């Protein structure tokens, strides 16, 4: 569990810790968790949106028609009883139409002191949908998904494995690490500030590559690249295997590494 995964504030839900605070503030020995489970029927090309603060989102694609969501809510407090009461107050909001499902952590209302909580989402979605995932203070992870993926993280990273659809990934203060199963015709856009980008793709992939970094370096390994335009330590532009879908990679403070799937990690 990372430090950023937990919301630690300087307040207390009124009455939560009454009579139970015998140790120093911050010694959260009590813990409790529960699960929030839903499933939704979405039309092809529909959109599922999940937003989390102080938690994480994990997405897995599959061949089906139903979006399945499981949220694991976890709380810590001075006692188990106080933690159980806090878990029951962690609100998750959902908005559902045939074309769109929106799920977001609303958190706990009221004044908090000396407690912590997080919500971690597990999403299973058809390849036919658009998945829009946003996390603050956490990580977005996507696996084996070939739909349109839009992933955003603030103070956390983005990880993609076996990605095959249109991809837009943006992180602030985090690493973006993506492994493409294929390059979709609609292309790939990767952005980060204060973090590195590591992109791997099939050696045979056809793409128009643009990779730039302001403070760092760009490297391309194990790929057939025909350079064009500006070339430098901080900027690489070229055609992979004759060119094709656009791949646009950019970071401000960090390195960019683009390599074939068969290159050394």
Condensed summary:
By secondary structure, this protein is mainly beta. The chain has one helix at residues 80-87; strands at 30-41, 47-62, 66-77, 91-96, 100-107, 116-126, 130-145, 148-154, 158-163, 167-172, 176-180, 188-193, 197-201, 207-215, 218-221, 225-227, 235-240, 245-253, 256-260.
Tell me what you see in this structure:
By secondary structure, the protein is mainly β. The protein has two domains: 1-124, no CATH class; 157-265, no CATH class. The chain has one helix spanning 80-87, and strands at residues 30-41, 47-62, 66-77, 91-96, 100-107, 116-126, 130-145, 148-154, 158-163, 167-172, 176-180, 188-193, 197-201, 207-215, 218-221, 225-227, 235-240, 245-253, 256-260. It has a 19-stranded mixed sheet that branches. It is globular and about 65 Å long. The protein starts with 29 loop residues before the first strand and ends in a 5-residue tail after the last strand. Residues 1-26 have low confidence and may be disordered.
What's the total helix number?
Answer: 1
Principal-axes shape call: globular
N→C terminal distance: 24 Å
Q: Whole-number average pLDDT?
A: 87
Count of DSSP strands: 19
Order of helices and strands: EEEHEEEEEEEEEEEEEEEE
Reported for the largest beta sheet, the result is: 19 strands, mixed
Number of domains: 2
- The gyration radius over C-alpha positions equals 21 Å
- Briefly note the structural class of the backbone: mainly beta
Low-confidence segments: 1-26
Helix content: under 10%
Beta-strand proportion = over 45%
